Structures are given as structure tokens and as C-alpha cells.
Amino acid sequence: LEHFRAKWTPVRVKKMRPNKDLEHFRAKWTPVRVKKMRPNKDLERFRESVKFENSLGSIYMRFSDKVVIITGAGRGIGLSCARRFSKEGAKVIIAEVDESTGAEAAEEITANGGEALFVRVDVGERLDVHNMLAATLDTYERVDVLINNAGVWLGGPFLEVEEADFDRVMKVNLKGAFLTSQAVGRQMIKQIDADGRPRRAESGYSIINMSSINAITASGSTVAFAASKAALNQLTRAVALAFAPYGIRVNAIGPGNVSTDLLKTVSAEPEIRDLIMSRTPLGRIGDADEIASIAAFLASEDAGYITGQCIYADGGRLALNLTVEKSRRGGEPG
Q: What is the Cα 162 distance to its own chain's centre?
């Protein structure tokens, strides 16, 4: 104990004199007068500066005046993405192979106060992709975001899959993303150079590929689709590295069971619906708008440090290593 005391020297703490020292402290700090916000006028001015109102509702304007190309935007997740980006101020290119649904989607966006252009494109054809980009530049002179959503799904026993069917899935799901990313990426780099931006600086440009949980999970009846989405994930990583020096971010989204027209038809059968719910811990089917919100996040400055990643929105399916009891399953699709 004596040895311990010898090593530690007590320090005398000066006691504050209640009045004199407190006044000295106050004199060193000058209060700053903060202007009081006028409840109505200033708050409304702030709101108007960050959000956009139309018949689709009010939301923050993260993509004001930006140009967004969305392939396969005539229905399902692609259409939900088009609505979401339009709602946030973007000029949307509805790139769709189906002329009827593509034209209807563009009309819906414009009728609700947005700005949209329909361009017919088969993403697996290089000339079509070239014409899609040319039409976009003729109208808006730039591209800021590309969403590779176009895709086809063909199922069936592996031994019965035709070569032509396998080729078709790969052409749209994988080659299509390659062609569009290459063409649009070149344009984005031209814009970066024209703006005089330093390399590796955050450019604001983004490419998003629509993958699937089938890139991870496997089924003997979805061989072509699963293979195409697994390859798309690797394409996402490789292109992210190729474009990183330019500040162009490339990511993917892997939806689980989402309430599209195809799934609604399939899940109408009780046995199929029970199977889907048994492997979905959240107990419901996802909504296409939920996937669109992830796309908006990935394309925004909020995701400025994210590239080469795939975000899975699957209701917990990939984390599951067993099936969910029937009593825990939800009701109608969410």
C-alpha cells in the first residue's frame, strides 16, 4: 500500500468560486441568436424545395431532371420503378419490347404529371439497344440511371429444356444487361469527361440490374433462369469494378416472391401458395413497389458508397434453413 501511495501523487483541485468564476466562464462564450422559423411561410418554402406533388402523391425529389432508362418497364417491377422514379422527378424512358404495355405505361406516367418516353427495344439485339440510347439522347441529351429489368422466365424439367429456350433466356437476362450496360456506360463516361469531373469522384451515375434469389437458390425446373441470374450477379460485380474509376456505381437487386401478374396466377392455386408461404418467414408475398424503393435508394446519393453488391428482398427466404409452420403463415399477398 505504501508503495502504491508513493507512485501516485494527489492533485489538488481548485474549487470554483460560485459567482466570480461563473461570470468569467460566461464572458468567454458569446450566445448566438438563431432566427426563429416562421411556422407557415418558411416551412412551406422548405417543403417545396425538396418534394414534388402530382396525382401520384408527394415525395422527396432525389432525381429531379435526371434521365432514367428502365428496360422491361411495361409491367410488374419495371412499371413500379418507372412510377417511383417519375414521382421523384425523373424523366423516364420506358424501354419495352411489348409496344402495347410500353405505350400504356408512358401514357400513365405523363397523365399523372410525370415525363416519359416509350422506346421499343429488344435488349438482346445490339442495334435495338443503340436505337434506344439514340432516342434517349435525341430527346433528353443525357442518361443518369439505367435499370436492367427486362427478363424472361422459362421453367420445366431440365431434360426437356430446348436449346432455343435456353438461348432465349440467356439472350434477354444476361446478354441484354451486357449490351445496355456497355452502351449506356460509354455515354455516362462521355458525360463525365464533358463535365470535367475528376476520375473516381462520385458521378451520380448508376446502373442497377434486376437479379433474383434464384441466383443463389437452385431448382431443377428453373435451370436456365437460375443460371442467367447467377451470371448476372457476377456481371454486376465485374462491371462495377470496370466503372469504379469513373465513379459510376453498379449494383443489383434480388427479389424473392413478388406480387407480379405471373406470380398472382401461379399462387392462386392453394398448394403453390402454401409452398411459397412455407419458405417465406415474413409470411407474405412482396410488393413490386417495395422493390422499386430499393432501386431508388441504390440510384440515390444515399447509396454513394455502395457498388458491386446485390440486395436481396426476399422476406427472409435466404436466411431460412427450414420451412415455416403453416399456422405462422400470412393471409393475402402484401
A: 33
